[in-house]
Write a structure and sequence with these properties.
Blueprint: H1 3-7, H2 21-36, H3 50-70, E1 80-87, E2 93-101, E3 106-116, E4 119-127
Antiparallel strand pairs: 1-2, 2-3, 3-4
Helix pairs in contact: 2-3
Length: about 130
């Protein structure tokens, strides 16, 4: 085994990982708070891949600019998770669709978790 393979992120089987549902709920709540401007995206970095982190940070910046242009202050979002559907296409990968209802609209959140180094990590995260 090459040393680069040894030190690279190691896939982890789903059986060796905790139930992903609490993480999916927490990430959804955290991402909506990031978009609302009351949480820093850095607080979610541990659970996001580099690409997912960048995408959420870009979306948060756009949301902040839109709030600023309308003269709105950041406010804690009120929402309810209506449904959470989880599938496991292969061992160590979980894909989820979360439907979230807020006061103004209903949103969908799509998440792909991968088991790496003994924990779940979101490799794809999108708030639609």
């Amino acid at each position: 085994m090459l040393s680069s393979e040894y030190f690279a992120p190691q896939p982890t089987s789903s059986s060796a990982l905790p139930d992903p549902v609490p993480l999916l709920r927490g990430l959804t709540r955290g991402a909506l708070e990031v978009l609302a401007g009351i949480r820093e995206v850095d607080q979610l970095a541990r659970w996001l891949s580099e690409d997912a982190f960048r995408a959420l940070a870009t979306r948060a910046n756009l949301s902040a600019r839109a709030r600023s242009a309308r003269g709105l202050a950041p406010a804690r979002p009120t929402f309810q998770i209506l449904s959470l559907r989880v599938t496991q296409p292969v061992d160590g990968i979980v894909e989820a669709a979360i439907v979230v209802a807020g006061p103004g609209r209903t949103r969908a959140v799509a998440v792909r978790l991968e088991g790496l180094d003994g924990r779940w990590r979101a490799s794809s995260f999108a708030v639609l």
